[in-house]
Amino acid sequence: MEFVLLALIVIPLAVCPLFMVIPSQYPQLSRYLAALAGGALFGLSLLLFVAYEFDGGSGLRYELQWAWLENIGFLGENGITFYLALDGIGAPMVLLNGVVIFAAVFVSWNLANRTKDFFVLLFLLVAGVYGVFISQDLFFFFFWYEVAVLPMFLLIAVWGTSSEFKTFARTKEYGAMKLTLMLVGGSVLIWVAIMALFIEAGAGTYDMTVLREAALDEDFQKVVYPLFMVGFGVLAGMWPLHTWSPDGHVAAPTGVSMLHAGVLMKLGAFGILRVGMTLLPEGAEFWAPVLMAIGVTGAVYGSISALAQTDLKYMVGYSSVSHMGFVLMGLASMNQIGVNGAVLQMFAHGAMTALMFTSVGALYDQAHIRDMTQFGGIAKPMPRHTAFFTIAGLSSLGLPGLAGFVAEFHIFVGVFEAGYWWAGVLGVISAAITATYILRMLAKAYFGPLNEKWAGLKEMRLGEQFAAVLLIAMILLMGLWPAPFIDRISATVEMIPGIAG
Amino acid sequence: MSTSLEWGLLAPEFLLAGWAAFIILIDLFWGGLGKERLGWLAAIGAAAAGGLSLIWVGDTKEFGTLADINDYTTLFRVLFCGIGATICILSARYVKDRLLHPGEFYALILLAVIGANGMAAAHELLTAYISLELLSFSLYTLTAYAKFDLRSNEAGLKYMLLGAFSSAIFLYGIGLIYGTTGSTQFAVIGDVLSGDTSDIEWGMYMGLALIIGGLGFKVAAVPFHMYTPDAYEGAPIPITALISALAKAAGFAFFLKLFAVAFLPLIDDWRYFIAGLAVATMALGNLVAIQQRNMKRLLAYSSIGQVGYLLVGIAALSQDTASALVLHLIGYAVTNLAAFTCIILYYNWTGKEEIEDYKGLAQRAPYVALCLTIALFSLAGMPLFAGFTTKFILFQAAADEDMLWLAGVAAFFSFVSLYYYLIVIREMYVGEAEEKTRFPTPWLEYTALTVLIAGVFLIGLYPRPVLELAEDATATIFVSEELESGEDLVGVP
Amino acid sequence: MIPIDNFLVLSAILFSLGMYGVLARRNAVLILMSVELMLQAVVINFVAFAVYLDPETFTGIIFGIFVIVIAAAEVGLALAIILRLFRNRQISNVDEADLLKW
Amino acid sequence: MGMDQAWLIPAIPAAAFVILLIFGPYLPRKGDWLAIAAIGTSFILVFPVLADLLDQADGTTYVAGEKAWEWLSFDLAGAGETFNIEIGFYVDPITIVMLAVVTLIALMVQVYSIAYMKGDSRYGWYFTAMSLFAASMLTLVLANNLLLLYAGWEAVGFCSFLLIGFWYEKRSAAEAAKKAFITTRIGDVGLLIGIIMLWLEGPNTFNIQEIIAFAEEGGYETTYLTAAVLFLFMGALGKSGQFPLHVWLPDAMEGPTPVSALIHAATMVVAGVYLVARMLPLFELADPIALDIVLVVGLITVMISATMGLAATDIKRVIAYSTLNSLGLMFVALGSSAVTAAMLYLFVHAFFKALLFLGAGSVIHATEEQDMNRLGGLAAKMPITAAMFAIGTLAMIGIIPLSGFWAKDEVLAVTREEQHIVVYLVLLSSLFITGLYMTRLFVRTFLFAPREQEVYDRAHENGLLITVPLLILGLLATVGGFVVFDEVGEALGFAGGFGQFVFLHEAHGFEFHLDVAVTSTVLAGGGVVFGWFLWRDKAELAASVRDRFAPISTLLANRYYIDEIYQFAIDHIVLGAGALIAWFDRVVVNDAGVNGSANIGYLAGFEAKFLQTGRLPNYALAIVAGILLLSVVMLVALV
Question: Which residues, other chains included, contact C57 with Cβ-Cβ below 8 Å and sequence gap of 6+?
Fold first, then answer.
């Protein structure tokens, strides 16, 4: 099974040169190759998720450790190692990534210009994301973290769409540049924190399992943890640093914003959990209230500003910020239920947002505008599309039986258990606000009398429908039967020091 | 003659000098060879010298007290010869289209390489100074080589005068150091300085300051960097590449050796000055680069930025930082050459060097666009490419010497630098070219480019071999503290 | 014997004069002359150190000779470039040669 | 086939839903028969469960059947405990009453819908949604833990959203559906917080009985318990359309009439009553303010709904106000912790309210008109519907033999004993007003001269599929009340009357309060007679009364402007805040914060760029300055 884990990274990277070889006159060929690769990745991720079970000890399964750089300069005996392993938190995330890339390939099926380069960058992004979820070495964690950010600029700048609004304009170059710079800016903080951690641990290695045992003194942790928190927080859409998310998503093409909001934002939260909270428990303990406050602000702030949006993608962008606020609340609760909830929400939100972007993208491809107010009654010509978008909306407002509720419920219980009753109440209120803007959007754009202008709309393409069904399967699976997810996640969350009962 | 000088040790330098003369003679007597093939010939010569210097891999020999031929020297010799050979290949088409007297052009490049080798091998201030001047003079001339191009003329003038001025300052510094320590050999200076230096403080620190100033000019650290943008912009493009790769690399080879051997005992004194220089260099280099519209000036400021990162290595000098610095230097040289190759190719095709002119390059020459993107991302320190790994190791080593704040500042500015690299990439991929014609594929330049990009990927993905080379190289300059003292200069009885 | 300090002071004065000359002069040739002046100051320095501090070895003096040689080469090269500039643009004033800026 | 198989009751409609969802369009007649068969079997299954419950009971102490399966569980770090969520059902007398009501009414409504919805483009989807609704309502009723109850609660809310917005082409239907879901969702915020609060201080479980047991041992501190209970009540407010959150129920009439009959009369809206009834022990343990709030809210809803009923002209809206009125009554009963009275009223109310709605539906189906001012004199054309509607109206008013009378008297008796006299008087006045507006409804629709001839011509009696359910419900509406008598209970095999079956602490037999019965009949009868005279023939008297009290009638017509106040609040406060924050986010956080800091770098570079003047002396100056700075600092610092 170890090589299945390795395949997760090798396949996307191996596919990139293959794409380059295909002459650009045959876009269909590169699409088939992309579908093949996407399918393989989805299959492997599913296999890994199903095969993973917690067997005591550190919970790391299918370990694969290759020496990369050791006993040289400041590096000790196992220095930097190419160390892949799957653990309870990584398994659902790997599955999520597999699902979203498979769906994204189908959604961007009939992308006209330069499909070949598009898929190269897309799979580079996926390789980076897989790398982060399964690498246990801090250097390679950061390496793949940056690889995931690398192709974002070109993906948005070349294939994105600029948009004009009454009072301001957002060109795709601006969106791409802001997104990339803010993420790399965040990674500067992470880089400094990694260096400080390396010195303080003094073990001469970046292997996280070793760093976890290194007893770091309290004040050091209190100083370095906020670096990790803010550094990863930028990618997790933390409140003051979230503005790249709506602008980035508005400019990005559908497939990219699916991958980006669906998976890349989870990298940030995953980083806070895997690196911040595991290696610096006292630091996490100390900063938990601040993270909680930021999380709550993000949740309420995101949902309220989503209320005021007229552009569909902006609304989904702000709803991502709000849901990531929930994830941060879950992480900040520092107890088993809350953190479980956070990881569940990462998965749930990933599937939900991907589905939302699929639908919005499908609508945009045909209607070429995203302004809610100009649509009316398009449930008539596009019933399936409406059904998919409604399911995504309902999952995001936390309807029981869908993934959103299971995750949000755990987060609320965890937050209340951790004593932040005010955060809990605000969180539930922001869930209600989410219901408001989702339903307002549905009523305004989808229901009501059919606006003649949109009579010509046709149903979603088959590829998009397949992607949507795939994502709905994930949402329903977690909504109705979350046991497989919970068993894997909570076994590993329990191992994290500093997590209360 | 107490110590017989093993002249054999300098075989590569002799080969280079002989080859330069041979090139000039061929240019004079056999016009038929054509300017382009003359370049290839020169490249073969440089490569042969590089190959020759591999003989001394692993052993450490002394060339009298002037220079020592050890792994450090061998590594840099191979690097410099490699740079020289690449530049000769790259400039072949350029010289054919735009320059006269190709013979002297290539000869001067080979002479510059000799100068660089001398700087790396030097174990004594005078030899170092002379090789420095040899390198500088050839570069001054090469910068002003395009006789009828006003910009090249002006660049040459500025580079020349300021170069002379700063080498005078550098000399004065050496004088003071010689006066206070009584010798010009690094090892001896090192011993004297590690002893009690209370009574010679004035001269020593003044000398040190002046040397830092002079060397600062050579590697283009901030207060002394003013000539760089003009020299880069004015000089013919292959020479800009030569300056950015060879001058910086040789400068740092000498800088590292001098400070590692001679001035190491005073490290606690000069450490924060170099750190100050490093911060200023990174700050100004990256911030002004954001404003640039000309590709060559952009790369000038980007190389100033890169010098800032290398100065971080010097500021936190230790065995690990030195090897990390050498690794980063190699990475920087290879990446810079790759970037310049693409720019030279584009210049040969279109004669344009403004960033806007790169619009739509991705459609017109996808391979060149891809390689330039890889090179720029590597300069910015993005993963998969050399920049990320070398910067990571360098900053971690610097942080190990409790210079975490400096490493943090460096990481911040490498993030700032991403902006202007993205600007260029955006032009290439997002912009629309006027005419969509594809360019003819110059096979030789493409192979050189592919080799360089392969080097960038190698250092990025698996830096172990190169880092080991750097490790062995720096091991030699650090272990030689306990040299037998009192060796006089030229073995005169 | 004249104490060494006199020589050092002399060379320091010459050095700063040369430096002033480089800063103040606008004509390229005169700047070159000031640089040469600075180089000669360095030579004095070297010779003084060689004679006073370690008379038995000639390091300083050899250094001085080399500096003189290099200074000469430098003048040749610099004048060539200045002539090129003059021939192309008929200017020798350094301030006017500012095509390359910003 | 006893209580252990109770989980089949919700499972069968759920299975039907899944089958209809996937294969519905391809089934013959779009699968309506499957939906009805499913709800029919569920109805039939209620009886064996009831029988099993009665067998195991000795006298009036009933043994509740409970079975649970683990849905999700993980152990908590360090504490050794595990956090687990189960799915399970709990059957006790209250559940049986609810099951009976829900399944029967659902069956009646679905049979009725075959005719009513014939020819609708989304006919199959209607039955799918109906099955889903039935399944979720039954889950809600049977749930043994609060979380499963909450899941059923939300699912029911979602189904009402689907069914209200069934004809989503109509802008008003889409808005009504949205309004319904959002308002109930706001209520559910309270419910969720309440559940979590109960779990937080409680014994790490969501199981209702364990929570009640824990509370009875004094586990919760009273003020904490009061807060939790009031949060629960907030959920009930939203779902049962009580005073602050009642605005969505009148608009919910946009949905098809069978939907209104099932959801907005008999089942969903009473979910709040069921929740409060189920959790009443907690309400009692909390300090009395909790029950008083329930009472007061119930009273306010009774009064405003009754008065609004007078002004409404749409027959469905009048019936909707009568539902609000009845719900208010149930909450008043619960406010005086009389579970028997409340459940009895709920049981009986389901029948006659469904009858009224289906009657109205039959009128609408026949005449395609639901505005009272354009109906009139339909009795001649639609005798059965008129007769059944009459029974329903009289039952609603509470005239002696019909079921409404018995239930209302129970409530009046309880309030007279338990509560302050004013509450009793207010209830009596509401009786009178109910008499008024119900008579107005009946008279204006069925009696006297038709106001619009062509509407009258169109009227015709509907087919069997519509009239048979009306007849059945009519029978139940008349006979339903007798279940109160102990003799009738024993005859049916129960331990005694309704009081012996459903009670809070101890069973109590039926005692007839003559004085309450007399006063209520007098007032109700007076209301009918007065109403008859007001709205006779051309209703001149009513018109003159309306003119004299013009300000009041306009106030009533506009539903106390509550809708407008809410709309104003939403537009200005919520959407205003949204617009403000969106602007703040774009301008302050983004343009100033992010772009601002980026521009600082840009400008710094811009200034530094001009240092590069291109003139050689400046460069030399820079070098000299560098050297001077370096040497001076070095000498000063180090020497």
Answer: B488, B489, B492, C50
pTM for this one?
Answer: 0.91
Tell me how far apart the alpha carbons of residues A412 and B393 are, in angstroms, rounded to a whole number.
43
3-class DSSP state of A457: coil
Unique residue bearing structure tokens 């947002």 = A353
The H or E element spanning position A427 is helix A421-441
Instruction: Count CB-CB contacts under 10 A for residue C53.
Output: 17
Q: What is the DSSP letter of D558?
A: T
Minimal Cβ distance to C23: which of D610, D612, D620: D620
ipTM: 0.89
Q: Which amino acid is at B394?
A: L
Spatial contact of A16 and A120, defined as CB atoms under 8 Å apart: yes
Residue A177's domain spans which residues? Answer: 2-494
Whether A499 is covered by a domain: the verdict is no
Residue ranges of chain A whose pLDDT lies below 70: 501
Task: Identify the contact set of chain B against chain D, taking CB-CB distances under 8 A.
Answer: 157-158, 161-162, 165-166, 169, 201-202, 205-206, 208-210, 212-213, 216-217, 222-224, 226-227, 229-230, 269-270, 273, 284, 287-291, 416
Interface test with B, best of C37, C77, C82, C94 (most B CBs within 10 A): C77
Kindly state whether residue A183 falls inside one of the protein's structural domains.
yes
pLDDT digits (tens, 9 = 90+) for D292-308: 999 999 999 999 898 88
Amino acid A501: pLDDT: 62
- How far is the C-alpha of A265 from the C-alpha of B375, rounded, in Å? 28
Query: In angstroms, rounded to a whole number, what is the distance separating the alpha carbons of residues B37 and B27?
Result: 11
Total domains present in chain A:
1
A309, D582 in Cβ contact below 8 A?
yes
Q: Looking at residue B2, what is its pLDDT?
A: 52
Ramachandran sector of residue D64 (left: φ over 0; alpha: ψ -120 to 50; beta: rest): beta
> D623 vs B76, B258, D117, D638, CA distance in Å?
29, 21, 92, 22
Is residue D552 pLDDT above 80, yes or no?
Answer: yes
Interface check for A199 against chain B (CB to CB < 8 A): the answer is yes
A201 located within any domain: yes
pLDDT at B485: 41
What are D581-614's pLDDT values in tens digits?
A: 888 888 888 888 888 888 888 888 888 888 888 8
Contact (CB, 8 A) for B215 and B251: yes
* Full DSSP string of D392-413: HHHHHHT-TTSHHHHHHHHHHH
User: Which residues, in sequence order, are CB contacts of C22 under 8 Å at separation 6+?
Assistant: B161, B165, C31, C34, C35, C38, D617, D620
Question: For position A476, what pLDDT does the model report?
Answer: 93
Position B486 confidence tier, pLDDT thresholds 50, 70, 90: very low
